[in-house]
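Request: Not sure, any thoughts?
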Amino acid sequence: MLDWKSLPAFLAVAREGSLRAAAERTDTTHATLRRQVEALEAQLNVQLFRRGADGFHLTPAGRTLLPQALEAEAALLKGMNAVKGLDREASGRIRVSADPMTGHFLLAPVLAEFSMLYPEIEIELTLTYGLESISRLEADVSIRHASEITEDAVARKLFPLSLGIFASRGYIDRALPQAGARGRGLTWIGYGDVPELSARIAASPFPEARVRHAMPDPEMHLQMVRAGAGMSLLAAWVTAVFPEVQRLPGTTLDQTRSTWVLLHDDLRRVRRVRLFVDYLCDALLERRADFIG
């Protein structure tokens, strides 16, 4: 393998025509440059320079290597300039809004990986089941699960979000064989007075299961389900994070909602926001199968 560290020494001597001038150009010693040039010649098994009283002159082998070395130098400088530009442009704060379930169980590793790649970008994360307005600049980027987006914002639709009826494997094995018709003997973990939940229960295979408790927090539903307290409506991705949670046999998934990433139209030209949104969407798309179920 070519020792790339010797190429700058070769180029410096080729440009200056002497070790002393090349050493001044590269802020090193002529003895160091001589060793690097001789090491490169030994590695290639050719003589790159003809040494004379009037300086160093390229041999035919040196003239053959020169354009390749210049091309390698240009590619390296281009890459270094791109990285430096990225450091300058990829900085600042991004305000992100998401629901707590998505934030706690899906976003944390994504944000950690993104932060390592772009250490100058700061994430201000708000976890809420409310809708922070993109158009009123209450958030820069928002992750939402909805059937449609009516807000004036740039919206990227990723995939369907499947909702279903889930319980722990232990609860299913224990309670389902003893259940009566239409779910009698089973237990729903309730959200309280939520008409949408009542409608879903009525349309489910278990409309006569008892609705217990009033817990408006979906994460508490997840923890109660994991503990074997009953069944609840949850997003299908929970089984990928918590394998002890299973969809009840014979039930189907509701895919009327989708997962969206929103941002303000003006911000899509801001590099740090564009970098974050692209990274976020790619990371979520890798979990597409989990969301769809």
In short: The chain has a mean pLDDT of 88. The first strand starts at residue 49 and ends at 52.
